[in-house]
Write a structure and sequence with these properties.
The protein has one domain: Metal Binding Protein, Guanine Nucleotide Exchange Factor, Chain A (Beta Complex). The protein is built from two helices and eleven strands. The chain is globular and about 35 Å long.
Length: 147
């Protein structure tokens, strides 16, 4: 049986479930820094994320040609990052979920955009913007081949 993790926005209107093993990533891209005011600490789940309540209160902002960022229209909580053309949520904010203690950072991304005024104490892989765009291009190619 798959693990299920409950999550919600600050006001509780939007509720989510993460299914399967969670992985944590830290995003240092300039968009996340502006969106959060800090790096994003995001969770991805092995079997995805489902919205279980409040879907009608979710608003999205298309922040680039390839992605949108969603938030609760009532309390403003940042919810998730979604790749355009996909029917799945790519990553959700880790703090939304009741996650177990002991999780380690899986990777840090867009490290070449990271300001020099903070560092995380982790030995996780650190991927640059170029490496991430290569990953996105592979994902898009896979999606087009599946259509």
């Amino acid at each position: 049986m798959s693990e299920t993790y409950q999550g919600h926005c600050l006001c509780g209107t939007v509720q989510l479930q993460g299914h399967g093993a969670p992985k944590l990533e830290i995003c240092h891209c300039s968009m996340c820094l502006h969106w959060h005011g800090s790096p994003a600490i995001a969770a991805t789940f092995e079997n995805g994320v489902k919205i279980t309540a409040g879907a009608d209160k979710i608003r999205a902002y298309q922040s680039s040609d390839w992605a949108e960022r969603a938030f609760c229209s009532i309390c403003g909580t940042t919810l998730y990052y979604h790749l355009i053309g996909s029917d799945q949520i790519h990553s959700s904010q880790a703090g939304l979920f009741e996650l177990p203690d002991g999780l380690k950072i899986h990777e840090e991304i867009f490290v070449d955009e990271q300001p020099d005024y903070y560092r995380f104490d982790t030995d996780a892989p650190r991927l640059t913007s170029a490496q991430m765009f290569e990953r996105f291009e592979k994902y898009q190619a896979e999606q087009q081949n599946n259509d």
